[in-house]
Amino acid sequence: MSDRVAIVGVAQTRFSPKRADANVAELAYEVIEKVLNDTGLSIEKDIDNTISCSHDIWDGQTISNIGITDVAGGHLRTEEKMAMDGSTAAYYGAVGILSGEYECTLLLAHTKMSQTNRHIVNNDAFEPIYSRQLGLDFTSAGALQARRFMHAHGLSREDFARVVMKNLGNAMANPLACRFGYYGLDDVLSAPMEADPLTAMDAAPDVDGAVAMIVASESKAKKITDTPVWIQGLGSCYDDYFLGDRDLAECMALEKAAAQAYKMAGISNPVKDLDLIELSDEFSYQELLWLEGLGVCKPGEGARLTESGFTSREGELPVNPSGGVLSGVPANVMGLNRVAEAALQLMGKAGERQVKDAKRAVAQGHTGFCGQHQCVIVLGNQ
Amino acid sequence: MENKFVQAPFEVDQHITAHSNYFAGKMGSKFYVALRDSKEILGVRCKTCSKVLWPPRETCGRCFSLLTEDDLVKIGPGGSVVSFTRVHYSEPIHPDVDAPLVYAVIQLDGADSGMTHLIGGVDPEQIEIGMRVTPVFIENRNGNILDIVYFKPE
């Protein structure tokens, strides 16, 4: 049994609105080949487990991982698919190594959102008896959560817009980002309204892309790299399914997932103990709500942290120095991209978006509408 | 140099369709028959938690009590708006109502959980959290959630 698990390599595609030149398997192969080359590992000799994250409807077949088994080494050994956000691949990859069953696991997340209609795909996440016929999707459901969150704390559209401005500004330094730029408040507020209070700029754009990562046991990791990033804490929790069963202005599931991960990592004060956070801002308001769930601030206070620059890349606790999901990361991929970005920071390989002296980070991913399932991963380079 | 023919990316055009009949469950069947035949809305009371839940279900997710048909209770039909949004895009998945489509979570009287549905019969700009609403039923009801056309202000 391994005491510790490390991320030893990361590869990501550039995220773009449509990768017409690559099908799903070709997109996956790009990052798998790169991460194997970077780490010098062989898919036949070194990798003993593969975990992938993808979406049946976006990929166009049930058990969508069947479409990538050839390029992911799944025909050589076990390969498992998480029909969930990419962060859960890191979670189960780490669990598999901690159990002693595996030594070196390839993680993969891929989606081509350009292949079909996002709202229609996400409408299928709503159960068919009471909800689906209403035509709900993740944007309209997110808007219901955003308004309830605003109502609970007297927040404004400007508070959400400042998250967009910060993250798209951060994305200027991220060569993989699809959407970036220095925007003013009016640019965000006057963007086309999708489902109020959320404009097109408050929502992550549709993009294609993939992320691959290799995690290994401590003894194996030390042979592969001089800059291992240790997975120090893991947490996972579901909230109620039906929107009407939840308090939409709170994020109980994230609080519980964070509590598990922090306990495992020995974190008592996240603001003091963490050097950066990469969280899944699929919609602008979520950055503020997830900051509460991650224990960074009291309910309703995330907006003030954004406005004061506390969460900027140069601030006390940088949040989404990569530009986050708002800069364009595909559904299902976004959580593994959060883990990858946090790992690159701790390896000192984040290029222009590097946060100085980063030693400890947290990555957060979620699956389902309004963040029903939450996954939290604490990483460190010490 | 040899001129190489460059093949443009080729996409295979497909459309997936499946007509489905999903079993509403024991409690759901009661709910839909009551909605269709009597314009009544049923929830279920968990005696252990003292909570009335919508939609009615056989298990309380909090205390894992088994709930039975004897625990079904009438709720609403009126309620108050917990949250709402006006949707400005249109998709084939949307019900056939005039834009903007307005969704809301509505806390029905006598229930402890909300129902997500539509709001209509009102200027969308006049909707606010806490507003009292009541359901409008369609005349020929088939037993589905759109037997309620929308909720309108009381």
UniProtKB/TrEMBL annotation, chain A:
User: What CDD domains does this protein map onto?
Assistant: SCP-x_thiolase
Q: Does the keyword Transferase apply?
A: yes
Supply the Pfam families for this chain.
Thiolase_C_1 (PF22691), Thiolase_N (PF00108)
**Residue ranges annotated for the Thiolase N-terminal domain, each copy included:** 5-180
Read off the Gene3D superfamilies from this record.
Answer: 3.40.47.10
Source domain of life is: Bacteria
Domain Thiolase C-terminal span(s) in chain numbering:
246-380
- Molecular function (Gene Ontology), one example: acetyl-CoA C-acyltransferase activity
The reply to whether Transferase figures as a keyword in the UniProt entry is yes
List, alphabetically, the InterPro entries matched.
Thiolase, Thiolase-like, Thiolase_C_2, Thiolase_N
What are the record keywords, sorted? Transferase
Q: What is this protein called?
A: Acetyl-CoA C-acetyltransferase
Q: Which organism is it from?
A: Desulfatibacillum alkenivorans DSM 16219
UniProtKB/TrEMBL annotation, chain B:
Q: Which residues cross the membrane?
A: none
Q: What is this protein called?
A: DUF35 domain-containing protein
Start and end residues of each ChsH2 C-terminal OB-fold domain: 73-137
PANTHER family in the record, alphabetically? BLR3430 PROTEIN, DUF35 DOMAIN-CONTAINING PROTEIN
Concerning InterPro entries, the annotation shows: ChsH2_C, ChsH2_Znr, NA-bd_OB-fold, Thioester_dehydratase-like
Pfam families attached here? OB_ChsH2_C, zf-ChsH2
Q: Where is the ChsH2 rubredoxin-like zinc ribbon domain?
A: 40-65
